[in-house]
Structure to design on (275 residues):
C-alpha cells in the first residue's frame, strides 16, 4: 500500500498503548504522535490521556517498523516501560486529562536495538486558531483513529478509522471547559484517540487537494446511561471494566480541545529550557 493520502498517513499517526494495571488486569488505549515547532527546534511527542498512564504498573507502546523508508506491515516493535507513569509529563491542570512523552529518546532506544520506527506525526500547525474555529459550522464531520475495545488489525498492525460529527459547536467551550462533544461510537480503547475535522471544498476536484484537515482534539470521556433519565460522563476505560456492565453508552464522546495539547507541550518546553 502506498502511503499517498491524508487518510493513509493518519493510520501511522497513532500508537497502541498496552498496559498492566496495579490490580494485575490488562488494558489498552490509544496514543498519537504530534510534532511541535518551538525555540529549540521541532520535537515529536507521544500524546495520550493521563488516566491511561496513572495507576499503571507497566506499559508498552506498539509501533510499526520501517523497511527502506516504507512501513513494514506486520513487523511489530513494542517498547516496554516498567515505571510507566514516571515516563510521562502531565498537564499542569489536574482536571485536564492529558499526558505527553518526547518521542526522540524512544526512537534512540529502538535504534540501539537495530529498529527504525515508521510513523507520520500530526503537525501542531493543524491545531485550528481562533479564526479557523470561527469558520467551523455547528455540525462538522469528524474522523478519529484508535483501537476501540482493543480492536485492530493485528496482522498489519493497523488502527481503526471511525467517523462521526460534532455534537456541540467547536466555537463554544462545552460546560465552560476547553472541550466539545462528538456524536460517534466511542468505546473502551478509544481513549486518547486524535479527533480531526475534515472539510471538503466542493469547487475543487476530489482528493487531498480539495480536503482540509484540522486536529481538533483528543477523546477523553464517554457518556453512559446508568439509570432511566440519568446520564453520567466518565473516562473512557482502558479495558472493559465490570463497573460499566449494565450501563449503556449513548454514542456521545467528550473531546479535549487540541489547544490544551499545545498548552501541555509549551509547559514541557518551558520546564525543559529552565532545567
Amino acid at each position: 500500500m502506498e502511503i499517498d493520502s491524508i487518510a493513509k498517513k493518519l493510520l501511522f499517526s497513532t500508537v497502541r498503548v498496552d498496559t498492566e494495571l496495579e490490580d494485575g488486569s490488562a488494558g489498552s488505549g490509544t496514543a498519537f504522535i504530534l510534532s511541535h515547532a518551538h525555540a529549540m527546534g521541532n520535537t515529536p511527542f507521544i500524546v495520550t490521556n493521563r488516566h491511561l498512564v496513572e495507576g499503571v504498573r507497566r506499559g508498552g507502546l506498539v509501533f510499526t517498523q520501517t523497511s527502506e523508508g516504507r512501513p513494514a506491515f506486520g513487523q511489530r516493535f513494542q517498547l516496554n516501560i516498567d515505571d510507566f507513569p514516571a515516563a510521562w509529563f502531565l498537564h499542569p491542570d489536574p482536571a485536564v486529562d492529558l499526558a505527553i512523552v518526547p518521542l526522540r529518546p524512544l526512537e534512540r532506544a529502538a535504534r540501539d536495538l537495530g529498529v527504525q520506527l515508521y510513523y507520520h506525526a500530526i503537525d501542531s500547525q493543524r491545531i485550528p486558531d481562533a479564526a479557523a474555529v470561527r469558520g467551523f459550522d455547528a455540525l462538522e464531520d469528524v474522523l478519529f483513529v484508535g483501537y476501540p475495545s482493543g480492536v485492530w488489525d493485528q496482522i498489519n498492525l493497523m488502527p481503526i478509522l471511525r467517523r462521526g460529527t460534532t455534537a456541540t459547536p467547536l466555537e463554544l467551550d462545552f460546560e465552560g471547559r476547553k472541550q466539545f462533544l462528538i456524536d460517534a461510537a466511542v468505546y473502551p480503547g478509544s481513549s486518547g484517540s486524535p479527533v480531526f475535522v475534515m472539510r471538503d471544498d466542493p469547487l475543487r476536484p476530489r482528493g487531498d487537494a480539495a480536503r482540509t484537515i484540522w486536529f481538533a482534539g483528543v477523546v477523553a470521556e464517554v457518556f453512559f446511561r446508568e439509570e432511566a433519565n440519568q446520564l453520567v460522563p466518565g473516562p473512557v476505560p482502558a479495558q472493559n471494566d465490570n463497573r460499566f456492565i449494565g450501563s449503556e453508552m449513548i454514542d456521545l464522546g467528550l473531546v479535549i480541545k487540541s489547544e490544551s495539547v499545545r498548552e501541555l507541550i509549551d509547559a514541557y518546553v518551558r520546564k525543559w529550557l529552565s532545567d
